[in-house]
TrEMBL record:
<dbReference type="GO" id="GO:0031469">
    <property type="term" value="C:bacterial microcompartment"/>
</dbReference>
<comment type="similarity">
    <text>Belongs to the bacterial microcompartments protein family.</text>
</comment>
<dbReference type="InterPro" id="IPR037233">
    <property type="entry name" value="CcmK-like_sf"/>
</dbReference>
<protein>
    <submittedName>
        <fullName>BMC domain-containing protein</fullName>
    </submittedName>
</protein>
<feature type="domain" description="BMC">
    <location>
        <begin position="4"/>
        <end position="86"/>
    </location>
</feature>
<dbReference type="Pfam" id="PF00936">
    <property type="entry name" value="BMC"/>
</dbReference>
<keyword id="KW-1283">Bacterial microcompartment</keyword>
<feature type="domain" description="BMC">
    <location>
        <begin position="96"/>
        <end position="182"/>
    </location>
</feature>
<dbReference type="InterPro" id="IPR011238">
    <property type="entry name" value="Micro_shell_prot_PduT"/>
</dbReference>
<dbReference type="InterPro" id="IPR050575">
    <property type="entry name" value="BMC_shell"/>
</dbReference>
<dbReference type="InterPro" id="IPR044872">
    <property type="entry name" value="CcmK/CsoS1_BMC"/>
</dbReference>
<dbReference type="InterPro" id="IPR000249">
    <property type="entry name" value="BMC_dom"/>
</dbReference>
Length: 182
């Protein structure tokens, strides 16, 4: 059962592949993502029960040592995070638009999970580094108050790490902009 996810973001591809192999061998986890991302980083995302995910991430940290850019373990991850990671959400309409931009892939997933747990919003996408120079972007929608609360919560949880680039809330995005977000 996928009730936890863990991620390691590694600064280079070869070490990333080694870390992914170690994580998979260390516990009963499912590999959700293992691939290179801009600018030459490698990201590994696993799911499973909390203990197995924690074990896999710890093992990856040991092997990755100084190559680890960022990492996390999220127990009880919000179920809408999974489709947002793959761009498979079914958002019918964008009301208010909220966006969080981060310097790391891992921090974006943490921010998205916190945001969607903080308020009644819909995740549009968690875009991980592709075409973003290694950064990541979380986009979500809902009522203005909910989006504002979600963006505040998601930004706050990563602000002290130094990985927050910026965040915005647009109360009523132009229809032309809406078509480019889906």
């Amino acid at each position: 059962m996928k009730n936890a996810i863990g991620m390691l973001e590694i600064e280079n591809v070869t070490q990333g592949i080694l870390v992914a192999d170690t994580m998979l061998k260390s516990g009963n986890v499912e590999l959700l993502l293992a691939q290179p991302l801009c600018p030459g980083k490698y990201v590994i995302l696993v799911s499973g029960d909390v203990g197995a995910v924690q074990s896999a991430v710890r093992s990856g940290q040991v092997i990755g040592k100084d190559h680890v850019v960022n990492d996390f373990v999220l127990p009880n991850v919000h179920p809408t995070v999974f489709p947002a990671l793959t761009g498979c959400t079914e958002v019918k309409q964008i009301r208010a638009l909220g966006v969080i931009e981060t310097y790391s892939v891992a921090s974006a997933v943490v921010a998205a999970d916190q945001a969607v747990k903080a308020a009644a919003v819909e995740l549009i996408e968690i875009r991980l580094a592709r075409g973003l120079g290694g950064k990541a972007v979380v986009s979500l929608t809902g009522d203005v108050g909910a989006v504002t609360a979600a963006i505040k919560a998601g930004s706050h949880i990563i602000a002290d790490s130094g990985f927050l680039v910026d965040q915005i809330v647009i109360p009523a995005p132009h229809k032309g902009l809406q078509t480019s977000i889906f």
